[in-house]
Each structure stands twice: as structure tokens, then as C-alpha cells.
Predict the structure.
Amino acid sequence: MTPSPDVVIVGAGIVGAACAYELAQAGARVEVIDQSTPGSGATAAGMGHLVMLDGDELSRLSLDLWHALAKDLPKQAEFWNCGTIWIAANDDELNAAKTKPGVEMLDASQLYQAEPNLRPGLAGGALATRDSVVYAPVVTRWLLEQAKAKITSAGVTAFDTLHAGAVICATGALTPKLLPNLPIKPRKGHLVITDRYPRLVHHQLVELGYLQSAHGDSNESVAFNVQPRPTGQLLIGSSRQYGVETESIDRHMLHRMLRHAFEYLPALRDCNVIRTWTGFRASTPDKLPLIGRLRDHLYLATGHEGLGITTSLGTAKLIAAEILGRTPPIPPEPYRPERFHG
Ligand SMILES: Cc1cc2nc3c(=O)[nH]c(=O)nc-3n(C[C@H](O)[C@H](O)[C@H](O)COP(=O)(O)OP(=O)(O)OC[C@H]3O[C@@H](n4cnc5c(N)ncnc54)[C@H](O)[C@@H]3O)c2cc1C
């Protein structure tokens, strides 16, 4: 008879996979359950931008962990330390960007030297050199393989009763279906990928207004966010919508998103698009994830909005520390579920 797992993880996206990896490294026997193919949820839909956000300790810790893990990742994970340029459209944005920690400020001529295809008239930018990109579905599979976790997925209609010391819910935007009282709302996003245009763009390019789109509560918003893939392809984002649960492409959002991208990078107008898709971010009221014990033996690792690929590794460290009674690597309070539930 197979022994009972120490920990059961529901959800085999990058967050569940990272938790499996971290707990297995600490010697725990882990079982992962997914209703679909591992890595096929938001993890497959995401852009894979590994980005540090100002004042967010979890993204800072996670970026360090990504850099440490990079040497072990398979080539197909496409980890690339390309850096992010936060683009300032005017002097006000440029001045505001000076308060960003850990960036190199670029004046207009340095910006155009770095990215000659941006539209004329921009004020400058802030270069975050440690930001990187990765292909998240491959990393997810690799983390699960390293964890040697038992994985039950796709096509399974009935499970045996499982007994475990801890259950981690890592079900992303589908979490409200299991735990309807949690303050998580799906937030739809569109992405576009082009044919190969090597050297058109060299860094992940994001307008400084992106954070307003991501952290604001408007029902619909778009922001300029373009990523060069190591293949030479370009990923074009981003859009955010509440209250839409269908996966189909919303043409008005797609047009709005692309028109906005063309304003920053006119050369995109001449690029061939090869695929367009949508995905759902798990959004919480304060846009921070829910990480930690909810009640009894039930733990949450969900609600990562548009940052869960980046913060998966840090999330796993926090969850493992709590389950194993270790000192957490960063203060866990901002992410604890009880901030909403008392
Ligand atoms: C368009 C878009 C762009 C993004 N870009 C980035 C980016 O550049 N950088 C970044 O860091 N993040 C990005 N994100 C966010 C990132 O993709 C997510 O935060 C992250 O993938 C969440 O991972 P997860 O494991 O929590 O969720 P998911 O990948 O959705 O995994 C959850 C898993 O749980 C399973 N599941 C759900 N319910 C059940 C159940 N009841 N029983 C069994 N299994 C269940 C699902 O099948 C799924 O496999 C983006 C998201 C979108 C939509």
C-alpha cells in the first residue's frame, strides 16, 4: 500500500508545483491533484515576466530565488535575464520613476539607444536589470518532476479519500468554486504572440502607467507591455477585465490593447500575429496573494493576480516555512489570508 502523503496540493499550476518542489526538498511526501493538465491554467496563459515590484518583498525574494534556480532549469525553460525598461512618456513620469528602487535611470537618448524602435518623443525610462523572462509551463513540469510528487490529473472523475497532514489550495482563479467566501475574482487578460522579429525589441518594455492598470479597480483597462522571447517572437499585452468569464477573445479589448501598443512601438503594425489567447488572473481586493493557513490543516497559496509566475517561488518558501514551523524568509503578514477573514 502506498503511504499517505504528508501534504496534498490541489492545483498543479506554477504555484502548486513550486510548493511541491519546496516541500519535497524539505523531505515531505507530496501528492498533487489537478482537474486538468498540469500547468494548463493561468500558468500557460501568462507572459512569464519575472518582475520586481516596488515595495513588494515577495517579488524581491522571488526574483532572487529565480536567479539562484536559473542554472538548474532546463534550456526549454527559456530563462533570460533581459531586464525591464519602465517607459516614461513625459517628464512627470520620469521624475516619479526616480523613486523606484534598484533601477538605472535612462534619459531620452539612452532610452532610444537601448530601444531604437520606440516612438519618438518619450522622456526616458527606468531599467531594472535583474528582471527576467521564463517559459512557465516548462518550469511547472520541471518543478513537479523534481518533487517526485504523485500527480493525479486530467480525466479523473473520482478520487479516493486522501489523508494528509496539510492540504494546500493552489487553484488560482478557480478558487472561488471551491472556497466561495474568499475575496478572489477572476480578471481576464488577452495576449498576442507574433512571428519572429529578432532585435526589434531587446528588453521587456512596460509603460509606467502599467501599475495603474494592474492595481486599479477599473472594469476594463489596457497597458503597453511587450516582451521579446528568446525565439525572436514578441508577446504583446496587456488587458484586464472584471466580470467576464468566457474564454473567447473580446475583439474590442484586443483592438484597444493593440492600438495602445502601436502608439508606443509603431513597428508592431507590420508584424504578423500568429496566435491570440486569453487567461484569468486570480485577483484579490488589495492585489496581494493569499498565502498561509486558512483553518485547521487547510492552507492557501492563491490570488496572485498578474504576478504569480514571478512570486511562485517565494510563495512556496512562505508556505513551507509555515507548515514545517520554520522561520519565514520575509514577513508573511501582508499575504496572510486572515487579513480578510479576521
Ligand atoms: C494574460 C496574463 C498574463 C500574465 N503575465 C504574467 C507575467 O508576465 N508574470 C507573472 O509573474 N505572472 C503573470 N500572470 C499571472 C500568472 O499567470 C498567474 O498568477 C499564475 O500562473 C498563477 O498560477 P497558479 O498556479 O496559482 O494558477 P493556475 O496556473 O491557474 O493553476 C491552477 C490549477 O488548479 C487547477 N484547479 C482549479 N480548481 C481545481 C479543482 N477544484 N480541483 C483540481 N484542480 C483544480 C487548474 O486546473 C489549474 O491547473 C499573467 C496572467 C495572465 C492571465
About this structure: The domain at 84-129+185-283 is CATH 3.30.9.10 (D-Amino Acid Oxidase; Chain A, domain 2). Residues 89 and 121 are 8 Å apart (CA to CA).
